[in-house]
Design brief:
Blueprint lengths: L3 H10 L21 E3 L5 E3 L9 E6 L4 H17 L4 E7 L5 H10 L6 E4 L3 H5 L7 E5 L5 E5 L6 H9 L2
Parallel strand pairs: 3-4, 4-5
Antiparallel strand pairs: 1-2, 3-6, 6-7
């Protein structure tokens, strides 16, 4: 769990200038293989999604104000591209449990799967420096966009992998 405390601090204190391509995995990097858990504690290999179709991963937490601010943008992007892009939220393991996430989702549902990074494996593999960190992968599983914060142009990032 080393580094996850810093993740929590950065989620609240992230400077507004920090956006696309300033952080995380380099564009062109092949998405790393990693196993996270579903909210029932069953392992989910992200490899079952990667390389099958374009994908958007958001590193997310119920307590993250930037995630909350980004949520309408993600929901709108999902409505537009959900048929061609696999959206997945990765709940980070900072002051979070699968039960707390389920309670939150009961009142604030997301239209895409929410998984839980119990051991911090996805945070490390995807070099997630903060919550609200988004990684967009093309259909071959290569990183085409990374960014963080509430002001990301998610539609433009997705347009780059779906072409419209």
């Amino acid at each position: 769990m080393k580094g996850l405390g810093l993740l929590a601090v950065l989620a609240v204190a992230m400077p507004p200038w920090l956006g696309a391509q300033d952080i995380g995995l380099a564009v062109g990097t092949k998405a790393p293989g990693v196993v996270v858990d579903d909210l029932d504690g069953k392992p989910v290999d992200l490899g079952r999604y990667v390389g099958k179709q374009p994908m958007l991963l958001e590193f997310w937490a119920t307590w993250c104000p930037l995630c909350k601010a980004l949520e309408p943008t993600l929901k709108a992007a999902h409505e537009r591209y959900g048929g061609t892009v696999q959206f997945v939220a990765i709940g980070v393991g900072v002051n979070e449990t699968p039960a707390s996430i389920r309670r939150h989702l009961a009142d604030h549902p997301l239209p895409f799967p929410v998984l839980f990074d119990t051991r911090g494996a996805a945070v490390r593999a995807y070099q997630a420096p903060t919550t609200s960190y988004i990684v967009v992968l093309d259909g071959a599983g290569k990183v085409t966009y990374t960014g963080a914060g509430a002001e990301q142009d998610v539609v433009a990032a997705l347009r780059g992998v779906v072409g419209n």
